[in-house]
Amino acid sequence: MISTIHGQITAVIFACLVIAFIIGSTLESWVSDDYSTPDLEGMSSRVSTIASVLATATPAERSTVLAAANRGAYRLVLRPSSYSERFTTSSPDEPFIQVAIDRLLPPEDRPVPVGGWRTFVDGKRVLAAKVDDDTLLVMELLPESFLRNDALRFGSNYLVATVTLVILFSVFAVWAITRPLRGIASAAMKADISVGPALFEERGSVEIVALARALNGMQRRISTMVESRTRMLRGISHDLRTPLTRLRLRAERVGEEDVRDALLTDIERIDHLLKESLSYLRDNHQREARQRVDLASVLQTVCDEFADMGHDVRYRGPARMVTSFKPLALTRAVTNLCENAVKFGTHVEVELRIGDGMTIIDVMDDGPGIPEEYRSRVLEPFFKVDAARGGADAGFGLGLSIVAEIIQAHNGKLAFLDSSLGGLTVRLEMPF
To answer: EC (predicted)?
Structure first.
């Protein structure tokens, strides 16, 4: 089997030539055998042959030759050479298709008539051949329709070759190029940076296999690099917990109450930062498998948990909606959004609906919102909008980053909109 695209293209062209030769010859033979329509080149050859006979004949013999030649369906007459002054190269009654064929595929390898292949007298097509310097042999009353052997031969071959090339290259492009590339693009859209099996199928032509192997190698290198970085950060965060515990014990023995409270507050904040960092570095949402779960029930449970803690968080949507998603990861995302909402607002609504084949989750609050110029940056880890979301419990800017990664793992989109409650609406869209 030919394994390179270059070899496959060469094979397609060779197959096209063979098919065009076989089908074109068959078509020409079929038309010639089944239709008795005369051909222009044959008639011109006949006129030229009779003219050559008349050139060596006596006047009496010319009459005999003409009489014998006119026993067929054509009319041959002798005209003076001045008759050629009446020749024209066009006729108002000629079909456009005939004009196009004459222009694109002029006859070859035949005696050219006097005046050329397109010769008309009073709008009627004629063929003329020179007998001598003073005489022309003219074939008049040509049939209204006739074949063009050259046009039939070359036209059929060209038509068959063109159609065959289009069909074969279309099939080849889909089979050898388009389909593998679409598969690679689809795998790339669904890819994550976790270490796992090869994402891209290494099958097809040599070039497609080389591309898939290069992408698989790149994915493995990126995964290894990210995994190494994550292990390092996890180790640093974990190792800091021990000295942080010692600092807390020592701070509790400080005699001055104000100093002790300030130290314990800073220690708690550092401990909170470590917890959020470790939570961000966990990529359980990448490894979790999708399941068919009642999404409406999951959202109602999240809202009920916040309501039990005294927050005004309400669910709005269908009582049941079973769809495919990662339940633990999506629960974590909606929980993070609700935590942000109750932190900076007093009333929160979680709405679920379906639109344009997408599952849409809106988390709306009546807080201060996020200024338009910061909405593209709040998804960056550790970025905080202090002017809009200040305060001691403002967090460290990791919650929305985690939400963004979870929605990306669902092949969805996250958007920030103005809320009907006066604050911010965070919209999650995922394929249904």
So the answer is: 2.7.13.3
